[in-house]
Amino acid sequence: MLGKLSNRTIKRLKENGRRANATVLEVASRGMTITHGNDAIVANTQVVLKTRLRVEPDGEPAFEVEERFRYSQFDLPSAGSVVAVIYDPDDHDKIMLDDSPAAVMQAGLGQAGLSADQMGLVTQLQQAAAQGMDRNAMRDMAKQWGVANGATIIDGTNGFGGAPAPPAESTVDQLEKLAALRDRGVLTDAEFEAQKARILSQG
């Protein structure tokens, strides 16, 4: 099937399938290229690569699949990459990549090592920012989430009697997560540089 499901199966998966993140366990180093439209436009060419995935749905056991998927030449995965998928819960062989912006963003956050709860907070904050919530209100929202989830409040105390907070995440770790978000397309180069400058100035 050259890495592409039938239009009927794609429609059924989009309407009734379940969405999840999947970790790339293995991916072929070579595959077939397929071009649609003008072959002088690089973006019109995709690469079909045999890929083994470990799909990790929320509230269900993880499972592995091995299929051929079509990837953009600009976004070829490697072992350890996190991709978004949609699958048939009754037939795991029916699976496709989810290229919707929201799914790609969630996969990028997963790649950066954020937990499902942390990713939920990021989504809430993005929605709040889109609705015009000011920074102080967003900071309060993050602190309330932290207290509810037992997270450390980074304001000089741990939120319980003013005891010193544990050491913050290292600068290197923060930069690695930031780079992962940029590589997945969650951050633009300009946003990456701005955040990198902020982290380095604090270090």
Number of helices in the DSSP assignment: 6
Structural class by helix and strand composition: alpha+beta
- Which sequence of SSEs, written as H and E, runs from N to C? HEEEEEEHHHHH
Flag low-confidence runs: 156-165
Roughly what percent helix? 25-40%
**Oligomer class:** single chain
Kindly, what is the distance between the CA atoms of the first and last residues, rounded to a whole number of angstroms? 51 Å
Question: Could you explain the architecture of this structure?
Answer:
The chain folds into three domains: 93 residues, no CATH class; 56 residues, no CATH class; 38 residues. Strand 3 and strand 4 form a beta hairpin. It is of the alpha+beta class and 203 residues long. It is 38% helix and 25% strand. About 5% of the residues have low confidence. Strands 1, 2, 3, 4, 5 and 6 form a six-stranded antiparallel sheet that branches. It is globular. The longest helix is centred in the middle third of the chain and has 15 residues. The protein starts with 6 loop residues before the first helix and ends with a helix.
Q: What keywords describe this structure?
A:
6 strands, 203 residues, single chain
SSE layout and pairings?
Blueprint: H1 7-16, E1 18-27, E2 32-35, E3 45-56, E4 63-72, E5 82-88, E6 91-97, H2 101-111, H3 116-130, H4 135-148, H5 171-183, H6 189-202
Antiparallel strand pairs: 1-3, 1-5, 2-3, 3-4, 5-6
Give a quick precis of the structure:
The chain is 38% helix and 25% strand. The protein has 6 helices and 6 strands. It has helices at 7-16, 101-111, 116-130, 135-148, 171-183, 189-202, and strands at residues 18-27, 32-35, 45-56, 63-72, 82-88, 91-97.
